[in-house]
Amino acid sequence: MSRYETNVVLYRLKKDAAFRERFRTDPMNALADVDLSDEEREAFARWDARRLNELGGMLHLLISIPGLGGH
Amino acid sequence: MGRIVYAAAMSHVLYPDYYGDNVGPHGRRMVEALIAVVREMGATLAAAAPDALVVIADDHLNVFSFDAVPAFCVRVGRSVNRMVQADAIEFDRALDGLPERYPVHEDLANSILEKGMQSGFDFAASWSAPLDHAFLSPVSTLYGNRPVPPLVPVWVNCFVAPQPTAQRCYAVGRHLARVVTEGPWNVAVIATGGLSHFPELSLARIGQSDPVFDRRLVKWMEAADHDALAALTAKELHETGSHELLNWLVLLGAVSPARATVRFFGEMGRVDLAALEWSVT
Questions:
Q1: What CATH number corresponds to the domain at position B51?
Q2: Rounded Cα distance, B195 and B178, in Å
Q3: Residue A39 pLDDT > 60, yes or no?
Q4: How many angstroms separate the CA atoms of B31 and B184, rounded?
Q5: Taking CB atoms and an 8 Å limit, are A53 and B65 in contact across chains?
Q6: Which helix H or strand E contains B55, and what residues bound it?
Q7: Burial (CB count within 10 angstroms: exposed 0-12, middle 13-18, buried 19+), residue B25
Q8: Closest chain A C-alpha to B89 CA, distance in angstroms
Q9: What's the domain count of chain B?
Q10: Which of A49, A50, A61 sits opposite B61 (nearest CB)?
Q11: Is the pLDDT of residue A1 over 50?
Q12: Which residues contact B151 (CB under 8 A, 6 or more apart)?
């Protein structure tokens, strides 16, 4: 279930500049209301793109988030 | 009676800086060589003077969102905008400076949609989806400064599982061929993307392609062995990183039984680049 949430967060990071800025400033706070597992939340917090990909995060989102993409 | 007057398929990141940055000078040189070939193909395409250009490509969760991911989507309406992004990803920097709006061939787009619904192809329709590099990098390279004919953009869901099957994409291409035959227009068709890259859509495997698989695909296209191509499984496409071949399968259905001529084939490592033309006239 939270694989969907993971991708929704990635999509918001790609498309929503204000959310992206909140995430950069304080990722745990930005994700406080999102239904993620602890492992997913921690992978976001340390921006472990490979782990997020292994957990079901879509490649094309992971490589296209401004300022966080790249590979 | 309408007919397909030109058909081709090609890789769709026709942007030297991307490969220069991510692969190095060898990648840059290879894509520059591909671009030179695509420009030559564009001269042939323009000389065929199509009334409409159908472009079959995929979305990279750039245009569509998790609100809905259509298996196949026909862009209808009168015009289509180039996608504008405040923070364009590197592929889409190729779009900077291109025209902001392109005409849509409304009658052909509506025919594909309506006749599809009548004959079992339940296309999604979009009146507002814009075009990103998957469409406009090839179109702009083919046409250069020449006027671009009215477009019919068709999206195929290549990346969000579950994707349509290769067989289904091929059948959509057969449908496209029937619509063209029943209409009054001379139509060009291009499919974009590929060849193999991003195997299993795994971040850890970026940088790998599957040249053995790609050589086999190209041989099948040269020999018009479309049954073999349409029988490819989702597992084969996923494991080799051939997701975007689904776009090519629509084109193959449209041009069958025509044989392909390879205009460019290059094994870069990160991706295998290709450009093929079909003898449709």
A1: 3.40.830.10
A2: 27
A3: yes
A4: 37
A5: no
A6: strand B52-58
A7: exposed
A8: 5
A9: 1
A10: A61
A11: no
A12: B52, B53, B54, B55, B75, B80, B102, B103, B104, B105, B131, B135, B139
Whether B80 contacts B136, CB under 8 Å? no
Q: Are B155 and B129 in contact (CB under 8 A)?
A: yes
Domain spans of chain A, in order of start: 2-62
Q: Contact at 8 Å (CB) between B222 and B279? A: no
- Please state the pTM of the whole predicted model: 0.96
CA distance linking residue B269 with residue A7, whole number of Å: 28
* Interface contact flag, B89 A7, Cβ < 8 Å: no
Taking CB atoms and an 8 Å limit, are B159 and A58 in contact across chains? Answer: yes
State mean pLDDT over B250-277. Answer: 97
The complex scores an ipTM of: 0.90
Q: Is residue A63 less than 8 Å (CB to CB) from chain B?
A: yes
Does the distance separating the beta carbons of A66 and B89 come in below 8 Å?
Answer: yes
Residues B159, A7: C-beta atoms closer than 8 Å:
no
Q: Dihedral sign, CA of B25, B26, B31, B36?
A: positive
Residue A71, chain B, CB below 8 Å: the answer is: yes
Q: What is the pLDDT of residues B133-179, one digit of tens each?
A: 999 999 999 999 999 999 999 999 999 999 999 999 999 999 999 99
